[in-house]
Structures are given as C-alpha cells and as structure tokens.
Design goal:
Layout: E1 11-20, E2 25-27, H1 28-33, H2 40-46, E3 51-53, H3 61-76, E4 85-89, H4 101-107, E5 114-118, H5 124-137, E6 144-151, E7 169-179, E8 188-191, E9 199-201, E10 208-210, H6 212-234, E11 243-246, H7 251-261, E12 267-268, H8 272-275, H9 282-292, E13 301-308, E14 312-319
Helix pairs in contact: 3-4, 6-7
The structure holds coenzyme A (COA).
Amino acid sequence: MTLSLTTGPAGTRILGLGHYRPSNIVTNHDLIARGVDTDDEWIKTRVGIAERRWADPDETVVDMAEQAGSKALAASGVAAADVDLVIVATCTMPTPVPGAAPNVATRLGIDSPGAYDLNSGCSGFVYALNAASAAVLTGQARNVLVVASERFSGWLDLTDRSTSIILADGAGAAIVGPSDSPGFGPVAWGSDGSQADAIAIDERSRMFRQEGQAVYRWATGAMAPVAIEACEKAGVPLEDIVAFVPHQANLRIIDALARRIGLPNAIVARDITTSGNTSAATIPLALSRMVEGGEIPSGAPVLVLGFGAGLAFAAQVLLAP
Ligand SMILES: CC(C)(COP(=O)(O)OP(=O)(O)OC[C@H]1O[C@@H](n2cnc3c(N)ncnc32)[C@H](O)[C@@H]1OP(=O)(O)O)[C@@H](O)C(=O)NCCC(=O)NCCS
C-alpha cells in the first residue's frame, strides 16, 4: 500500500518577528541588594551584563509567549486563522505537563493548530525553526508560529553567584511561512551527551546549576566550526553575513566566537548587556530587536548559533524578514 504525501512550497522564510521583555528591570546593584555576593564591575567585565529583566511573580512562560507571539503575528501580516502549527521552545515551564503551546495558541485565537513544546535548552529556538520550516516545506502546515519563552527567575539560587547573575526572563517569536525561494540554509547541528551534567536543573534542589568554566571552554572552542559549517552549507561566504546572532550566554563568548569565525562585515548581537541570558529566547529576542531597530535590512543573510544544555547546538543562515 502506498500512502499519500503532501507537498509544499519551493521555500520557507521568516515572515515576521516579535519579542517581549518583562517590565521589571534588575540591575547588578539590585542583585547585590537581594543578597548576591557579587559586584557590578565584575559582572560587566566578566559577563557583559548591566541589567536583565525578571518576570513579575504572577507572570508566566505562557504570558510572555503570548505577548511575543502576538507581535510576531502582527509583524508578519499572517492571520491567526492561517496558522496550522504552534511550537514553543522552552525549558522553564513550572511543571512538565501541560505544555505551553496549546494554551498560547488558544490565547492568540489560533483555532486548533498542531501544538507542542520543544526542549533543547538554549539551542531550542533554532531547532524549532527547523521543525517549523520542515512542516511548511512538506505541506503539513501553511504557517507556523515559533515562540521561545523562558522564565529563569523561578529556578535561580541567589547563593550561587555564577548562575544568578546571568539568567533572566523573556520571549521571542517568529512566523515561518511559504516563500518562492529558500529563506533558510541547511542547519549545522549536533550534541554531546557526555557533558549532560554541565548545565542542568538539579533534581533535588530544583535550582539551575552549571559548570561555568567547562561550558565556557566548550562554547568558545567547539562552536566556531559549527557556525562556519552552516555558512558553507548555505553557500554564503563569511564576508556576506550581515548580522551574527549567537546565543547570548556571555559577552566574552560572543566576542570570541565572532573573532574565531571571522565575520568582517557582520554586526554582532550584544543583547545580553540589557536582557541577560534568556536561554532559548535569546536569539529571537535579539534578532527581533535588531530588525525592529533597523539594524538588519530585510532579506539580509543572518547567521544564528544556538548552544547550551544537553549539550546541544544548532547553527543556520537565514534571511531577515
Ligand atoms: C560563569 C562564569 C561567568 C564565571 O566566570 P569565570 O571567569 O569562569 O569565573 P570563575 O568561576 O573562574 O571565578 C573567577 C573568580 O571570580 C570570582 N567570581 C565568580 N563569580 C563571581 C561573581 N558573580 N561576582 C564576583 N566574583 C565572582 C570567583 O570567586 C573567582 O575568584 P578567585 O579567583 O578570587 O577565586 C563563566 O565561567 C561563564 O560565563 N561560563 C559560561 C556559562 C554559560 O555560558 N552558561 C550558559 C550556557 S547556555
């Protein structure tokens, strides 16, 4: 017996972006006032963060995803009725069940789409983009809402100064839909489960833990070749990349990666300085802010690189909406 296959358009691309940052600004001095044993100068020099956003106590992953998703829908011009799939990339839901995606869809007036959550830590958004693009390319969805939403303030140990200063809350979203030509290059991705314990939420304490120096070495050493591979797969010379939007983990990691990859003409996302590390949300949050601010022109090739818990990573060249 032969089963039917659906077919889709010639290409897919991001049609619109949106982001949401909670209104509550937490400066380095605010952290010290809350009892974190640190100092402003150390954080700015070693990590590059001046301030981050934390959600209000009653503000949830779903609330933030709804805000970002609503803006992405508006920016794309796609009607809620024309979205067939919703993917929420997150690793900070307060409980494993239910997932966020069906709830986000209902709140946005998207009627009965396919809906699921995807957890690949800080690389989750790039993985979700690929799942979305594949669904459209194979004719299984006309348009897909991809949201990354994280609420790390609920998982922080304020006595651990290597993590409590870094992590933050926020959301970013994209609508992925059809196009006449490809708006995504092939992904370069991979993982290393032998380092599964390097970034984790501790089972007993329910607090976020990381082996900071091991992660730093891994990110600065192993991720540049992955980014270069993504450019090669897409057939885009490094000098043609207009913007580099890596996961916002540490400004020193971002700058080291930009140097090692060698991107002579790219502006580099440094959203971490005012948004902190929002895990899966850093890439769409930074990209959305840069596009909204006019820093990245429509159609420009952008290199995105997600990496983190798992350990897992994914890089890709995409065209700005
Ligand atoms: C966590 C991280 C910022 C720590 O920076 P580091 O330079 O490796 O810091 P170390 O742990 O080696 O400590 C160096 C010194 O700074 C001090 N220090 C560490 N954290 C501090 C803080 N928040 N404030 C002030 N001092 C701090 C240490 O006590 C140590 O002091 P000492 O030399 O007197 O003993 C860094 O390792 C990092 O960014 N790693 C990557 C983490 C990451 O990206 N995670 C997310 C992955 S998706």
